[in-house]
Amino acid sequence: MSLSAGERLGPYEIVSLIGSGGMGEVWKARDTRLGRVVAIKRLSGQHSERFEQEARAVAALNHPNICQIHDVGPDYLVLEYIDGKPLRGPVSVQEAVRLAIQIASALEEADASVGWLEIIVRSGLADANRAVALRREASEVLAILAASRRTAADRSH
Length: 157
What we know:
Phosphorylase Kinase, domain 1, alpha+beta, 157 residues, 6-stranded antiparallel sheet
């Protein structure tokens, strides 16, 4: 069941849709208890084992390039909201290197803390559902790199 602006999910007031993917939707919301903006990842369908694994993995991480988890419900995660605009490519080499370093640092922490690198790689780095744990900037670079790889492959055919 999809949410809509103005609706409440527990103490969270839904503001707007951020995005959607195979596992569900991500919404911008306001935490009415603490007066802060959060991101809510709400599941669609049955993904309970994968959802619980993701919640535990994200909760175990503490790194400046990995968003924090604030709360968990039966079919949703409440995450740190990271404001920003989508990254558009192409980017300069310097910017790509800066972002790649952030991504590598986050992945190193994730793998060292909970062995999460195997989970991310097995699921596919460009998968929007895995990007939830990476700061928006880093996850968008992954999508741009994947798109660039597809474009290069198309040109070679």
